[in-house]
Amino acid sequence: MIKLSKYLLLIVLTMSLSSCFELIEDTTLHADGSGSYKLTLNLSSSTTRINSIMAMDTIDGKKVPSRQELKTKMQEYISMLNSKEGISYAEGSLNTENWIIKLDLNFASLAHLKAGLIDLSKDINQHETSEEVNQLKLSYVNGVYQRELGAFIPEKWKKEVKSDEDFSRLKEGKCIFIQRFDQEVSEVSSTNARISKSKKAVMLQLSPLEIVNNPQKIDYSIKTVH
């Protein structure tokens, strides 16, 4: 059976070029570096088209799994996450009526979060991750949050997306990145990010089109009062 991660990625790529979607990444960081991570991918606006894909026997020569198979595989991956060092209370859901994917977990540190997700990728794909992925930066040390994830977007994928006739429609989607802190934020490196009125949260909102054209826009740092 086609692996869940690859199948969902295929759905995202297909649907994001024909209609809008919403991705929300919400990270809470405490002073000791621990925190929680929530990810929501909402493809509900593409329900009709996704259902048409689900009705197919195969896609790209591979068997299309049933809704139950997808849900079962999702829960297997959640169990794997819970077994990773520094990861706890991981929960996930796949709503196959409205096509909404959710992930929620706690982590001991961002280093544990990064390592846990990379290890999960190894488990799913059954091979070592690339050096580029291992070099991705995600940290919160001495009151400074840093993320460098733009390099994770493969050049091959960007070329394929840009060659699609509906490429411009990526501007209709939303990708929202939120970081919440115990301390007040003193500085954000990205000019596109906004600091909340409480000064304890930062939000960056971009369209998928902006990210494909310039992946470095999701790379930035945040300084908190330490």
Q: Could you describe the 3D structure shown?
A:
It contains seven helices and 13 strands. With 226 residues, it is α+β, with helices and mostly antiparallel strands. The chain has a seven-stranded mixed β-sheet with strand order 5-6-2-1-9-12-11. A four-stranded antiparallel β-sheet has the order 7-8-13-10. A two-stranded antiparallel ribbon has the order 3-4. It is globular and about 55 Å long. The model is unreliable at 1-9 (pLDDT under 50).
Structure described in brief:
The protein is α+β, with helices and mostly antiparallel strands. It is 32% helix and 32% strand.
Low-confidence stretches: 1-9
Shape: globular
Order of helices and strands: HEEHEEHEEHHEEHEEEEHE
Radius of gyration: 18 Å
How many helices in DSSP terms? 7
The biggest beta sheet, please?
7 strands, mixed
- Major beta sheet, strand line-up: 5-6-2-1-9-12-11
Number of DSSP E strands: 13
Instruction: Indicate the mean pLDDT.
Output: 84
Strand content: 25-35%
Please report the distance between the alpha carbons of the first and last residues. 49 Å
Structural class of the secondary elements? Answer: alpha+beta
State the helicity in percent bands: 25-40%
Overview features:
226 residues, four-stranded antiparallel sheet, disordered N terminus, seven-stranded mixed sheet, alpha+beta
Topology:
Layout lengths: L3 H13 L5 E8 L5 E8 L4 H8 L3 E2 L2 E2 L3 H16 L4 E9 L4 E8 L2 H16 L5 H4 L2 E5 L2 E5 L6 H9 L10 E8 L3 E4 L5 E2 L5 E6 L1 H6 L6 E5 L2
Parallel strand pairs: 1-9
Antiparallel strand pairs: 1-2, 2-6, 3-4, 5-6, 7-8, 8-13, 9-12, 10-13, 11-12
